[in-house]
User: Fold this.
Amino acid sequence: GEDVEQSLFLSVREGDSSVINCTYTDSSSTYLYWYKQEPGAGLQLLTYIFSNMDMKQDQRLTVLLNKKDKHLSLRIADTQTGDSAIYFCAESKGTGKLIFGQGTTLQVKP
Amino acid sequence: DADVTQTPRNRITKTGKRIMLECSQTKGHDRMYWYRQDPGLGLRLIYYSFDVKDINKGEISDGYSVSRQAQAKFSLSLESAIPNQTALYFCATSDRYAGPDTQYFGPGTRLTVL
Assistant:
């Protein structure tokens, strides 16, 4: 079956690194995504990674993919208060449908 | 994303009422989706449409119906609203010709059923 799991809450201090984790069950996943939802807004794509990649870096964001363990992580360097949001992991098999995790609420304390 | 708009943004209604939520997009995408978001449950797919004549049920379609009036418009209806349909509803779009299945979301409609 298809299932994506995330922890619900993470709290960090401003300036620290944040690591948000996600596990998935479908080994045939083609793409894996990270979306950000700010309060009162819709989901915004942060980044995605192809299943044949191990890592992708984009400025302060680093995505790591461990296909053997079906584990995806998002690292945010130098976390700022503006990074406070809900972060969703999602997977797809290239069929046009996404399966989302429950979302991780990131709280950044000054 | 201003390219995907949803109306209304907020709605309070009573049990048993018929409600329609509307979604419009200017992205020129062929695929459109409706999700609901509940705290701790993430986003769950209600219906999706890959083309004007191609409409499919998602994982939680019971109690909902949809209409794809044009490529740019996809409406979600609650025929007889019930309190457990209180949630945040999102419309999304994607382009079948883009490599990844990246979806672009509207701002959401907060629906409260009393």
Remarks:
- Chain A is about 0% helix and 55% strand.
- Chain A touches chain B through 26 residues (CB under 8 Å).
- The two ends of chain A are 41 Å apart (CA to CA).
- The first strand of chain A starts at residue 4 and ends at 6.
